[in-house]
Design goal:
The complex is a heterodimer. By secondary structure, chain A is mainly α. Chain A is built from 23 helices and no strands. In chain A, helix 4 runs parallel beside helix 8, helix 8 packs antiparallel against helix 10 and helix 20 runs antiparallel to helix 23. Classes of the chains: A mainly alpha, B alpha+beta.
Chain lengths: ~500, ~350
Amino acid sequence: MGGSRRTYPPLLLLLSALIVLVALIPLFFVAGYVVSSGWDEVVTLIWRPRVGELFRNTGILVAGCVGLTAIFGTGTAWLVERTSLPGRRVWNVLLVAPLAVPAFVNSFGWVSLTARVEGYAGALLIVSLSYYPLVYLPVAAMLRGLDPALEETAAALGYGPWRTFARVILPQLRPALLGGTLIVALHTLAEFGALQLLRFPTFTTAIYDLYRSSFNGPAANMLAGVLLLCCLLLLTLELRLRGHHRYSRLGGGSARTIPRRHLGRATLPCLVAVGGLTALALGVPLGSLAFWLVTGSSTSFPFADLAATTATSLGLGVAGAILTMALAFPIAWLCVRRRGRLTILLERGTYFGNAVPGIVVALALVTVAIRFAQPVYQTLVLLVLAYAIMFLPRAMVSIRAALDQAPPVFDDVARALGCGPLETLRRVTLPLVAPGLGAGSALVFLAVVTELTATLLLAPIGTRTLATQFWSNSASIAYGAAAPYAALMVILSAPVTLLLTRDRWRSMPV
Amino acid sequence: MTAVTVRNLAKAFGSSQVLRGIDLMVPQDSLTAILGPSGCGKTTLLRLIAGFDVPDSGEILLGEQVVCGGSRFVAPQHRRVGYVPQEGALFPHLDVAGNITFGLKGGQRRSGHRVEELLALVGLDRSVRSRFPHQLSGGQQQRVALARALAPGPSLILLDEPFSSLDAGLREGTGRAVVQALKASATTAVLVTHDQSEALSLADQVAVMRDGTLAQVGTPHEVYRAPADLGVAEFVGAAVVVDADVVDGSASSDLGPLHVMAGFDTGPARLLVRPEQIELAGSSQVGVEARVVDVSYFGHDAAVRLQVLASGRLVTARVLGLSVPVPDSVVRLSVTGPVAAYSPGP
C-alpha cells in the first residue's frame, strides 16, 4: 500500500463509477421516458380514474401494512427480549422464520384454502404476516442493546411500567421502528406475486398486467415512473433517518443482565398471542403446502421436472450471487478503506437499488436491451444483471461489514511479522472476511431463488425456475402441482433465514 | 552501537507537512520514547521506521543496513521489526498460541515453538495459550501482542501508544512488564506516547516531538530538568515560570533567591521552577510568605496552590502527603535546587 494510503486508486474508482452507472439504468430509463414523452402525454396517461384507484389501493395497503407490522414486530420483540415469556429462544427463531416463506408462497397457502382472503383485508393480513419480521429484527436488536440504567432511572423517578415503555423505551426504538417499517413499505410497494394471487390490484400488479396482456408499453412505463417516485420518496426518508442514527451496534458483547418484566398471570395470554401469530404466519402456509403436497401430488410427482427447475434456480442463484458480490466488492472496498466524499456518492448510487421494484428493473432492462443491446435480449445475461441491480445494496452491506472485520492494522502487523502481501491475504484478510462474504452471498442467493417479478418478465423462453413454475401452476389453479416448487423454495431459504436469528447478522438487509 | 538511525526525514500527506528534518539515533538495547501531543507526527515516524509508509526524503538505517534512502526501500516484511499497535490488534480468528507463533516459519509454528517461554517473558500464565483474544483483558491483550512481536526475534520493536487504551490502574503494571520483557530479551524498542509520565518512567531516552520536528532528545532527567525551551518544559511537566535578572548564576525573585543551572551567567531571563522544588515551612523565618489558597490531596502527595503575599502571584507546590498545610493559613516558601534559565526572546 505504501504511501498511497490516502489517495483513490484511479482504476478502481473508474470501475466503481461504471458499476454505479449500470445500477442506475432503471432510473435513467424512467427519467428518459418521461422526458421524451412530453408533459401532455404524461398527464393523459396518469390522470385517469384507473390510476387514481390504483393509487388509493396502493396507499391504503402500504399504510395498513406499516401499521400492522409495527404492532406485530414491536410487540413480539418486546415480549421476547424484555419479558419472562417462556421459550424465548424458540420464539426468536419462529418469529423470524416467516422470512423463509416468500410472500407469494404465503398468499398461495391462504388462497388455496379459502377464497375469502381475496381483497383488501386478506391482502393486508397476509402481506403483514410475511413482512413483520423486518420490523421484529431491528427492534429486537435495539431492545437488546438498550441501556438498562435508563429504565431503572425512570423507575426511580416514579414511572410505572407502561409509562416507562411509552416515554423511555418507545422513543429510543423509533429509529429501528421507522427503519423497519420503511423497508416494509418499500417491499409492499414492490410486491407482485402475493397481491396478484389475492386479486388486490396495486401499481405493481397493474404494470405487469399492462405489459403482459397488451404490451401496452407507454402506460406501463408511466405507471413505473409513478411507482419509482413513491419508492424514491420512501428511500429519501430512510436515508435521512439513517443519517441521524447508524445501525445500533451492540457494545462489548459481554453478557449484560437486562431486567425482564415478569408476566405473571399475563403469561398465558401472551403465549397465545405469540403462538397465534406464528400459527398464522408460518403454520398456515406450511400446513397448506403439506396438504397440497400430500393430496395433490399423489398421482404423479414430477421428479425430472423438479430436478431440472431446481438446477436452473440454483444455477441462477449462484450466478446472481457471484455477479452481485463481484460488482459490489470494489465499491464496498473503496467505501471502507478510502472513505471520502466521492466514495460516499458511489455508495449512495448503489443504495438506490433498494427502492427499485423488480418490475421497474425488468421493464427498464427489456427496453434498453431491445434498443441498444439486441443480442442480450431474451438471454440469461440480462436476467442475472437484473438480479445484480436489485440486490447490490444487500451485497454492499454484507461486504462492508466483512471488511470492517479486517481493518488495515492487521495488514501492518502481519507484514511486520514477515508476511508478504499474498501471505497476508491468505492468512489474515481472507479468514477474517470469508464468513461475511459467505453470508452476503447466501443472502443474495436466497433473494434470487425467491425472486418472482423480474424473473417472470426477463427469463428467456424455455427457462423455467422454481418461482416461475410455481407461478404458472398456481395461476392456473393447479395448487397440487405448484406446491412442490414452493416447498423447495422454502427449504432452500430456511438455512439462510436461520442465520438472521443470530446476533451478528441482525443488521443484515433482507 | 546504534539500532536505528534516522537522518533528515520528511513526510507530507497532501499539502500538510507531517514530518520535517527528523534526526534520531536509538542506541542498541535501549527504550526510546517519542513523546508528543496527538497529531504531532509521532505515529507517522513510527510507521516510516516500520516501512508501512514511504518518506518523501531522508534516510532510515536499522543497524548498519539502509532500509530506506535514495532509491532503496526495504519492504516491512523484510525489516525484522516487531510492531505492537494500539489496542494490540490481536488476530481475532487465532487463539493466543496462534497469534504468538504467527510470525514463525511453518515447522516452528505448528510445534507451538516458544509459546510458553514467551508467555512467561511477558508475565502471563500458560493457561491463556488456548484462549481467544476476546476472552482476554486489555492488559493481557497487550502482553500477547508484545509476545507475538518478540517471537521471531526482531532486532527492534515498535510500540504505538500500547497502553493508552488501558485503565490507569493497569497501565503502569503493564508498562513495567513490557519493559522487563524487552530488557530480558535484549530488544531495542521505540515507544510512541502522548503520556508524559509513561515516557519519563519507562524510557532510557525521550524524544520530544512538536509540529513534526524533534524539539529535544535526551534522558528523562535531562528532558524534565533541563528542557530545551519553555514549550518543552510545559509539555513535559507542570511549570512555574519566573522572570528575573540573573547575575553570576543567581537571581532574586518574588519566590526568593534562585540558583541558576550552569550555562546561563548574566542577563534578563525566564526561569523554570518545578512545583516539587517549592518547599513549604510553617513558622521558620526563611522564605517568602504566601497564603494557602486550596489543596488537592492525593494521599501520597498533594498539590498546594499558594498566593505569594508580596507580589500576588499564584504558584503551585507539590509536597509530600505527610505535611499538608491548611487552606487560608500562611506559610513560607522557598525554592530548592538549581533552576533552568532561558533568554526572554525577542
